[in-house]
User: Fold these one by one.
Assistant:
Number 1:
Amino acid sequence: MIKITELQKFYRTEEVETVALNNLSIHVKEGEFVAVMGPSGCGKSTLLNIVGLLDDLDEGSYLFNGIEVAKFNERKRSDLRKHNIGFVFQSFNLIDELTVFENVELPLIYTKVPAAERKQRVEEVLEKVQIMHRRNHFPQQLSGGQQQRVAVARAVVNKPKLILADEPTGNLDSNNGNEVMQLLTELNEQGTTIVMVTHSEHDARYADRIIRMLDGQVLMETVG
Amino acid sequence: MIKNYFKIAWRNLWNNKGYSALNIGGLALGMAAAILILLWIQNEVSFDMFHSKKDRLYIAANQAVFNGELNTWFSTPKPLGPALQAEFPEIVRISRYSSMGPVLMTVGDKKLKGNGIFVDSAFLQMFDFPLIQGNANNVLTNTTNVVITQSLAKRLFGNEDAIGKTIRLDTIDLATVSGVMADMPGNTRFRQAEFFMPWAYMEKLGMSDNFWGNNSVSTYIELTPGASIDDVNKKIRDITIRHSDGREDNEVFLYALPNWWLYTKFVNGKMAGGRIDMVQAFLFVAAFVLLIACINFMNLSTARSEKRAKEVGVRKVAGAYRHSLIGQFLCESVLIAFIGGVLALGIVWLSLPAFGELVDRRLFIDFASPIFWVSFLSFILLTGTLAGSYPAFFLSSFQPVKVLKGTFKRVNAAFNPRKVLVVTQFTVAIALVVSTIVIQRQVQHGKDRENGYSQNNLVYIFEEGLVAKNSTLIKNELLNSGVAESVTRTSAPLTEGWSNSWAFSWQGKRPDDKTVFDRFCADDHIVKTAGLTLVAGRDFDLSTYPTDSLGIILSESAAKAMGFEDPIGQPIQDNGKDWHVIGVIKDFILRSPFEPIPPMVIEGAAGWFNAMHIKFNPALTTSEALSRTEAIFKRYNPEFPFEYSFVDEAYRQKFEETQTYGTLAALFTFITIAISCLGLFALAAYMAENRTKEIGVRKVLGASVFSIAKLLSKEFVILVLIACLVAFPFSYWFMDRYFLHMYTYRAPISWGIFVLTGTGALVLALATVSSQAIKAALANPVDSLRDE
């Protein structure tokens, strides 16, 4: 599903050029659950952003489902993203002014799903993450774990083929963290590909495969 | 999608009530100010544009060279109109127009004053002043017909039918009501008129003449459809010259109705603006105030960008295109503009009566007109788009990678758009302050000018009814009873120039000399009554020198203009009479305190009289003197109400127009400053918040509260200084071009004004900013440094 070869990514300031990702190649098959680990600054979040088409790459090739997307413009990336990729962030990133229901509904609005279908699909996914009873609450009225479940619901409501999770349990206590990991595992079992960046060895054990990075390169891969 | 936009916009407003109030309030205030000005402008440009024949109506004007300069004026001799109509087939109708002044109207026991106008019978056929009763073709055919406005009819006759009823005019003649017309609209140059009478009545009163040199009435012309104004103007040019056998040398031309109100100023024969200058100036002001309010909106919106950044990121990740985000933010600003607009409409509705009074216009909002609603909604759309454009492009440009990972920090660059906005805002505010001060100083400049006479205890009373006939008796009684120190009959109030002429002749006058002299008449003791300063000769004194009835007192500049080395005893001819100079006085201000004083000739008791000036005995209180004067007037002129004016009050009215501009400028300046300070306050709060970490580090490293407050305030001081640099030359140009050029006697724009304004702006900016700066400086650094 994801085939990245010889990826280079630099960050430039006026005087210094920092190499964020150096000649990196990875391959993620459809239905896989991959965890990316490594110390702060090793480039794992940059990699996730590039995989999620939030950031562009300087050199190399990125085949998404066999299509070269490295040179896509903003609009094409946005189109690909909204139909194929869901995101889960460490800090949840829910919109405070929208209710739980409306937050989850947002991606469906941008993919122009009709209102009746939207309602049905949102309710379905809220049931799945067991937050249906809080559908009319605003994010601040929820606990961290509940907020992250809403974020997961939002990530999957469009039935994406790929979910990218950036330290999804980083702001949660272990109970809530486990619940979220459980959710991700279930999604994976139902066929969704997951790429997760994490600092937690515990969380990484949920994955099929662990990619360990250092200084913008893949250090080693272990199969779980 | 749109529903979603408005939903989130509404919740954003609701959840940040303080911010929303500032934002909407500022916008509403700016919009209200702009709407008020636009209503005024709309009224000004609509003057007399409602006449269905407006493209065929003209006013007759004259041009002639005076002392090397081509002068243009709009008063014409009385025979001009009939002559034009008789001689040129292109001219279908004419009407002369001459004010009767306030006329005492008596119906039974009811007495009131109405403003009457003499017109030719075609007047109501030329102009669209609809008759409610009567036929425009014949209401003014009989000599004593009178056409009255509806409200005058109501005041005179109550709810009775006015047609066929009689009104006694000034205790002399009975006039018969032949027509009732709708009240004059507020946007016509004829709006003061309350009743019209036929020209024939003016002739009956002996007030008309056929003298081609007496330019005293307006002449209105209606051309045939399709007539070429250029051709007509070529043909009529020499009509006055022909009819006066060359004694008058002014050329006549017709000036089109659409220009009558806004373009009335001519310089050397060329049209040179007029009211249009003020319309343009205030259009500028309206645009400025609205711009300021929009800038405020931009500042407040972008200052909260960090708050919105996450939302932008999430939406982009969820699949939003940039243009849909721009659309969202524009929807939001249009919503805010809409709320602001509704609020503004409320403010306008409440303040319109007071504002109308201030600008002396009947302003109103035509809520029934679809044009109003279309323009109102366009105005909201325009404001919303203008105010929302920058925030929309700014906010939608955020990259989700940055905002969602918390690495989002705005750079504090030397040149960022928000600073440019603040500079623009302050530039406008400072320019307006300078303008206000310039106007106020101009008023003061005129007031400070030496007027040349003494206005203390001096009143004048118009000679109505039997006053002229009984003037000697009244005068004697006022003097003998000790009410008055001195009494003088005059041709006009001392504060008004009613007559001028270039037709005086004296020994040694060059044949081409067309110097215009103010002509004033006073029967006796004018120097004493008005407290004038004699520089040669003596005052009129009829009891000692009966020949003073043909005496003349010259002003110093008149004596100079006539070239007299020894003016006393010099003969002067005017109006077919032989006068002689008996005294010379220092110049005094008869007309405008802002213009040079023209040379002046005061003719003695053989002149004509309209007013009586009374210098009260200073030993009496004013109310005592007034009540005793009233008793005397009631005795000799019982039919008329006793009405008087204080000369000093009348003089003060000369400043009213300028003062009105001053008040308006002050009002809009205040609004602008208020809005600007709101914006600055919000911006300072944002900057302080943005730099919490920096402040924390500095404090940990030992910075004092004062040094941090200074650090944060310094930036704004620089912005204000830049604004000063832009505003000063601009306001200098603006005021010179649009305001001071109206006055010859000007208060110079001194550097002191700029120093004062600059200091004021700095102090105000510092006061606004420092509270935020000090708050930030006092904060505990532990709080700001902990969450990294």
Number 2:
Amino acid sequence: MQLKKNIAISDTGFLFDPSTGDSFTLNPMGIEILGMIKEGKSQAEITSHITSMYDVVESAFERYFYDFISMLKHHQIIEGNGEN
Amino acid sequence: MQKLPFERPLVQKISAGLPSKFGIQGKLEPITHIDGIPVNSLIEEFGSPVFVISENTIRKTYKEAYRAFASRYPKVQFAWSYKTNYLNAVCSVFHQEGSWAEVVSGFEYDKAIAIGVEPGHIIFNGPDKTIEDLTKAISQGSLIHIDHFDELYDIIDLADRLEERPQVAIRVNMDTGIYPQWDRFGFNYENGEAWDALNRIMVNGNMDLVGLHTHIGTYMMSTDAYRIAATKLVDLAQGLMRKHKHAISYIDMGGGFASRNTLKGAYYPGSDTTPSFDDFAEAITSAFMKSELKPDDLPLLILETGRALIDDAGYLLGTVIANKRLADGRRSTIIDAGVNLLFTAFWYEHDIRPAKAVSDQTEDSTIYGPLCMNIDVIRGNVLFPLLKKGDHYVIKRIGAYNNTQWLQFITLRPNVVMIDTTGTPHIIRKAETLDSLNQHELTPGHLGQFNV
């Protein structure tokens, strides 16, 4: 799970992909998670951080995390590298 | 340490240019309370989903409608359209406000009688009145609106046999400039059939011709159609006076006023485009007042509008079951109320709101009901906030037709609650149980046992 190269993300959640010209918006939770993905954090680290800070249990977070990742893949913002 | 509230992470593509079919993005205000009662506590106490009807809103809407007509015309009478919502409590609120009853079947007629409506204040419409229904209505002096010649001859026959004088009106259909023209109810104006029916009644002499009625359409957005209809009925009334020296007691303009719901495919929301009661009243009463009707002998103006009087008072509350991704990346949200409960979802873009404050974030969504049926779509395309499993929602303006056209299909029908004018909720129709359905079923003895 790796962010595509050259993707620009602003502090306010504006994301630009120069390879396609597409722009996206992220909500604050999306910014935070994408930031951690960019830093190379693992899913376990991300889950641990979010569940300690926010009012969400691990099992509930997991499904929203996977949904978020699937949308990032759908928009070709992250490269799956063949991993599940 | 208090944890921060969690919102689902979201990424959305920005598309410049025209709005998509999901419409222009706008923040959805949550509906957290109904008549002062928190939505969460209503669901906790009465289950999910649950229909909630506001008595206050019914009375307020009725008064607004009555004022619109009564301030323009001296003799106004509303008749509550039972088919729109015939829950006893709902009918009783309208009757307390002064409405008569307008029924379209023997079942509805019996319901009105059982609720306690004076038979002379029941208007019996509809194409299907059995001999038994007509006998009851004639014997009790109810107002029978004749739909076709076969019915007229049944009544002529019954008047003779019962030695009673039926109180009758004819239903008239006509060209009011709208498409499609509703010509299936009653006798046509333009081809002379209506006049023919009136002549037969007058010549027969055994019936009291008390009124004229029309039902020009449903969800009418044009007030001018009512002006044209009123003009044509007044013309018939004047014809009766000229030819038979007979004055009718009332002209019944039927119902059909649009509510503020948005029809599917409409460009603007219904709340912006629907004519007000004042608009309808102006069109109808001005046609009466401009006619040659004598000011001292004006007929009573009866209105049977249902949808516009009850839609705003009804809410459907429920819970999100799940969120899914569709093949093209769109979100689908599954809620616990389907088209079996919300029949009007087939023709309205219902206004569905979260039951608590949410962020500005929304996502292109399709909202499905819980039925295992592809047609179970509550909203096809809507920008909807990020509700999670277990969150509550509120669907506005569902008071008309849902509690009469709902289906017992796949799931049972839930509680219907009315919040009274002091803010106290009452169950007015109990949730169905397996027993309540099974009590109507009979299984032949030879099917009683099996091994599976």
